[in-house]
Amino acid sequence: MSIAELKDEISRLKTQLASQTRPPALPTNSPSSHALLLLSDSALPLGSFAFSSGLESHLAHHPSRSYPPIQPFLSLALQTLATTTLPYLLAAYRDPSRLQELDDTLDACILCHVTRRASTAQGKALLTVWERAFCETVGEGSEERKVLAALSVKLKKAILRPTPEVGNTETTAFGHFAPIWAVVTRAMEIPIGDSANVFLLNHAKAVLSAAVRASVIGPYQAQAVLASGWLRREIEGLLRGNWDVKIEEAGQGVPAMDLWVGRHEMLYSRIFNS
What we know:
By secondary structure, this protein is mainly α.
């Protein structure tokens, strides 16, 4: 071996040794991924544990003494949310400046008062979480932060004047969950697909949590449903089917769901608010 070849071999071995002793690259956690984990957490104080999305009423009106499988009802609950509410979420994400318009329109289009109450309760809770926890992570000049602040001001005025004057839009606000969720996730740089996906997944988790507390299924079975390919395909199909639906075309895809939710307050005893 010549001196030149020996020097090349020594250089190659030094390079190989340096690559082996170099510490491994640390995993990165992007702001959007971190925000997505926060919003998908079941401990997020939105009050969703207080609602069963019609499950309690559905079970009470079921003629059989034995509880039916949870998957058919969960599929109907997700279909209802996707056909009635998802178009408003997508519209608000694509144009945050329409937040108040979409909030008003959604309130006018929700026929069941129990569904309306659940939506506004969770929407106001999310807006409170945004103002007290998430708001400081977003720049002050962002459009999303401005429209959320404007809606918050109108909601506070609506509380002070519970019966707004006819035609007075300054004191008319409702705070529905879906459009507020859309603007919050956009402000936190979460992609629109992930925003819609987690919105439906969180609804599935809420329904399954209600089923566990109602003793319909056990906690392990609930986790099995969440981890199943069936639920993943169900959500994916609903996203594909309603991705381009305009708010003018949104409507109740499961009319019986309004009956179950609406009759919830007529139950002799209940443990949920809807």
